[in-house]
């Protein structure tokens, strides 16, 4: 368990990879359960304190974004959670893509231009076309992959050129 602790300004996104977690914050004033595939966002704004409990074998991937501290520090804090079934999926060949943040997803954040996809790659090669001027990264949940000619392992987080 991560005891009650404060945040301001940032957007904190937690992706439940395995098992269950529970979330409590000073705005909701109740524990909220989340399971594998669920996603939460804390828009910390002018300030919020929260606590997280990870169940046995629970795993999350958490990433922080700076939406623009000049404006977010004056906004009230807010929190949303989304169930795994809330996110649109599509099949491309033998691979499946789930849009966690981006077009068609209910997930809302203040940080502009963020898109998050969960890609389950079937056999063979999988390619996504990069758009100029965007920054891409990958977090490998299982297996190994080759990105930009480099072998990455399970749980590696890499920038993609």
Question: Could you characterize what this model shows?
Answer:
The chain is mainly β. The protein is built from 1 helix and 15 strands, in the order E-E-E-E-E-E-E-H-E-E-E-E-E-E-E-E. Strand 9 and strand 10 form a beta hairpin. The protein is globular. The mean pLDDT is 88.
SSE order: EEEEEEEHEEEEEEEE
Low-confidence stretches: none
Helical fraction equals under 10%
Give the overall shape: globular
Mean pLDDT: 88
What is the β-strand count? 15
DSSP helical segment count: 1
**End-to-end distance:** 36 Å
In percent, how much strand structure appears in the residues? over 45%
Secondary structure class reads mainly beta
The profile of the biggest β sheet is: 4 strands, antiparallel
Task: For this entry, give a set of tags.
161 residues, mainly beta, four-stranded antiparallel beta sheet
